[in-house]
Write a structure and sequence with these properties.
7 helices; single chain; 35% strand; 35 strands; 633 residues
């Protein structure tokens, strides 16, 4: 019997993500408000952001298995599907960041299906899967979707060296970081100070200790809560420095310096535990208040300014304001305090949860089934009010004995699009903050907001338009490749030369001038199994033989897996792998196929004197083979 691998749609996007609400400003806007609003609107239009999420069928794999997945491409503005069809790059990388294989997926209304076949000879270890669009390459690689995938060698026996953390590493040094709320400690002003402790593996770890000044006077004791995070309040005194001393259960005390307090500045204290409003208290040093006059509080989320309010210190050294939550969508919101000159003075992240999750109900026609028996079920999806919902979904069905959650509270489409994709750094156990069984989830989530910065932009870049020029365009139905002409006599870029190109399959010829750095763009249509592109260079003297080309391929290798070794195989894991082997033996007799996938194997540098094509037209300067998929050769 042949299994049909069509996707069953279960995992929601459009209904999961919430409608955008826009807050209106008062008619009497200040010039500062208008300037920030105009510049932020320009930034949002010129640099629209995208997000990608991949839904995988399993949390880990064995050699020879296929990684089945569905890709979702959404607009970061409102987390809704992209209206235009684009090309998504999906890459499998080893522990050194080397790309093993790359797939190109053509999205249809924001989604596409894909699969990656793992070789039987693939070494055991942790691998990483990245996904991005050509447009996303204009920004930091933190915007890429990235997930670590363990792959197990069936023939390899585990020994002590295979464990992720040895006993020695568990007792190794800590790293303790401090994050004053809003950004700075100010002499004489009471501040909340968040902290995060991590072990040598980069995982959050429980700590306890005390805060003291240089003279040894103890101010307070502290203890972490979830994943090594916590907070305490203190009022720094002028001229004093402060230190934290950790007291491990085994080992010597470890001392860390707290950030030095400043004489001038503002302190912003945020209370996000009210159901209807966010309470914000702003206090400033005497000199900052006298110099600033008015200040502006701005709240943005989803690349949209949702709220702004002017504040002043005419009658007091502090003021309090309340932000209604009903105007904010679910997700991370950024609160920023500007002085009268428009310079950011303090910043704080909060997470807004409108509790508008979908209700998904599955009813099967029977309680038990025979092996390989057809299963019929009814799927019902409603919103928080009980109204039926239409959307695009994906569902994984697998024998529960064949899978084990490697880590508790893993990332999912909800936590990824609404939380982790907007924060800096690795977010451990993102599902913890939304599990109703965890009574401390809201406090733990607030600690997370205090210890992780916003990753989408910096206000300085927005206000002063300090953005790098766009180098990568949106790819619709064609792959946009960027090339660079190199002068062989100097081995340097050949600027302003004329580039002629020819694509065989479309009989498409054209020419364009490279820029001053020798860069030019050309196109490849992924519909064809093989695309041969001929490039020729002509300078002012019509010289053509003194050049070579470089073709832009991979992003910089900045994504590495945390360990070459795989996760420790406990008895439950070993049993799951045994079941998977039995399943793999059965599946070997079936024929699977995937749709909407184009495979691209690239060589980054091409010299026209050495690269040949099977054609009567002569030497090809650039060959992209879409018909050969040998990812592990």
């Amino acid at each position: 019997m042949k299994i049909n691998r069509k996707t069953i749609y279960i995992l929601p996007i459009q209904a999961l993500l919430l409608a955008v609400s826009f807050c209106s400003f008062s008619q009497d806007k200040s010039q500062l408000q208008q300037d920030i609003l105009i510049k932020f609107d320009k930034f949002s239009k010129e640099f629209p952001q995208e997000k990608i999420y991949l839904h995988f069928d399993k949390p880990f794999y064995i050699q020879g298995e296929t990684i089945w997945y569905k890709a979702y491409l959404v607009d970061a503005l409102d987390n809704k599907f992209k209206d235009s069809d684009e090309i998504i790059y999906v890459e499998l990388l080893d522990h050194e960041g080397e790309i093993i294989t790359r797939q190109l997926l053509q999205t249809k209304k924001g989604h596409a299906n894909g699969d990656l076949s793992l070789s039987q000879s693939l070494p055991q270890g942790n691998y990483r899967i990245n996904a991005y669009t050509n447009w996303m390459k204009n920004f930091d690689q933190d915007f890429f979707f990235s997930k670590e995938i363990p792959v197990y060698d069936l023939k390899k026996k585990e020994d002590d060296s295979e464990k992720i953390l040895s006993e020695k590493s568990q007792d190794a040094d800590y790293d303790l970081q401090f994050f004053p709320e809003g950004g700075d400690l100010i002499y004489g002003l009471t501040s909340k100070v968040a902290f995060k402790a991590i072990d040598i593996s980069g995982k959050g770890t429980h700590v306890l200790g005390e805060i003291a000044d240089r003279s040894g006077n103890v101010l307070l004791h502290f203890e972490s809560s979830h994943l090594g995070m916590g907070a305490f309040t203190m009022t720094p005194e002028k001229g004093k420095e402060y230190f934290a001393t950790l007291k491990p259960e085994n080992g010597k005390n470890i001392q860390y310096a707290l950030p030095k307090a400043k004489e001038e500045g503002f302190v912003m204290t945020v209370d996000n535990f009210h159901s209807d409003n966010i309470k914000i208290d702003v206090a400033g040093s005497e000199k900052s208040i006298n110099n600033s006059g008015e200040v502006l509080l701005v709240v943005q989320s989803g690349s949209t300014i949702r709220y702004s309010r002017l504040g002043d210190f005419q009658t007091s050294s502090s003021f309090t304001t309340y932000i209604p939550k009903k105007d904010l969508p679910t997700g991370v919101a950024q609160i920023t305090l500007f002085n009268a000159e428009g310079s950011p003075q303090s910043e704080r992240l909060v997470f807004i949860n409108q509790h508008r999750n979908l209700n998904i109900e599955i009813k099967t026609d029977k309680n038990t089934y025979q092996p390989r028996e057809m299963v019929h079920f009814d799927l019902s999806v409603t919103d928080h009010r009980g109204n039926p919902i239409q959307g695009n979904f994906s569902l994984t069905v697998i024998d529960v004995s064949q899978v084990v959650d490697i880590e508790k509270y893993n990332d999912n489409i909800f936590t990824n699009l609404l939380l982790t994709s907007d924060l800096k750094g690795n977010i451990e156990q993102p599902g913890y903050y939304f599990d109703k069984a965890n009574q401390d989830k809201e406090q733990a989530l607030d600690y997370l907001m205090l210890t992780h910065g916003w990753r989408r932009f910096l206000w300085k870049q927005v206000l002063f338009e300090e953005w790098s020029p766009i180098s990568y365009a949106f790819e619709k139905n064609k792959i946009i490749r960027r090339g660079q002409a190199i002068d062989l006599s100097t081995n340097s870029p050949a600027g302003s030369v004329l580039i002629a190109y020819l694509g065989l399959n479309e009989i498409d010829a054209g020419s364009k001038f490279a820029d001053e750095n020798g860069f030019f763009d050309f196109y490849v249509d992924p519909v064809f199994n093989k695309e041969v592109v001929f490039l020729a260079v002509a300078d002012a003297n019509d010289t053509q033989d003194n050049y070579k080309f470089k073709v832009d391929g991979n992003p910089k290798k900045e994504y590495l897996t945390s360990e070459k070794k795989t996760y420790n195989q406990n008895p439950i894991m070993k049993n799951a792998i045994k079941k998977r082997i039995e399943r793999a033996t059965i599946e070997a007799s079936f024929d699977y196929s995937s749709e909407e996938i184009y495979f691209l194997n690239e060589i980054i540098e091409y010299d026209h004197q050495l690269t040949y094509a099977n054609t009567d037209l002569g030497i090809a300067d650039h060959i992209i083979r879409l018909d050969r998929y040998n990812p592990f050769n």
